[in-house]
Amino acid sequence: MAPALHFVAAASEDAQAALAAMCRRHKDVGADDADIVVALGGDGFMLQTLHNFLERKKPIYGMNLGSVGFLMNEYREEDLEQRLAAAESALLHPLRMRAAGKHGVTEALAFNEVSLLRETRQAAKIRILVDGKPRIAELICDGVLVSTPAGSTAYNLSAHGPILPIDADLLALTPISAFRPRRWRGALLSHRARVRFEILEADKRPVSAVADDLEARDVTQVDVAEDRSISMTMLFDAGHSLDERILAEQFVD
Which pLDDT tens digit goes with each residue over 126-145? Predict the structure, then answer.
């Protein structure tokens, strides 16, 4: 029996045209009654869709109508039901961020990463504690991030962080353009680790904290930990699973 489907699309012209084409071919039963959500767009839209369907906990199958499309499948109008029947799943757990600062407390989830970024021309100064123990007394940098395995090939990779297998019980802690300590390249942490960032000289060197696409400005302390009570399922074409993509990314020139 074919799964009941609900289609969502990014605002771009191509994604909206694909949405119209898919709805001509398949019945859209709505978000509440769907077995699977089909997301049409790029990686950014996939992250939005994961957040939008947190409460419904629907599996999400993405088709790429963006630029990179690492979290998406190839867009094709035909054979959707057969592709879904053969699809491989990946279970994602988000990071939970709690950021305190001048504007109060912001809590948010991140499926890719939580990143701290300097707001001005001056480098940030950040103290890093892991499970309550100080590990870096003063990191002078453009920023620092904590990444999930799913997000390890995104911003984390561009900051020269490690690629993590999707089923690794690890998080990547990666500095962004670190000036001091000059030789520190980051750390691999247990998924149970609790990371605290304390912003030093916050008035002079303001820092923002970003969880996926939600930003908190002028933070003074940020706590990050994986939340295993929350999970979302993504679906990938057979032979193109997320763990295969992450593995292949380590052998790209």
Answer: 999 999 999 999 999 999 99
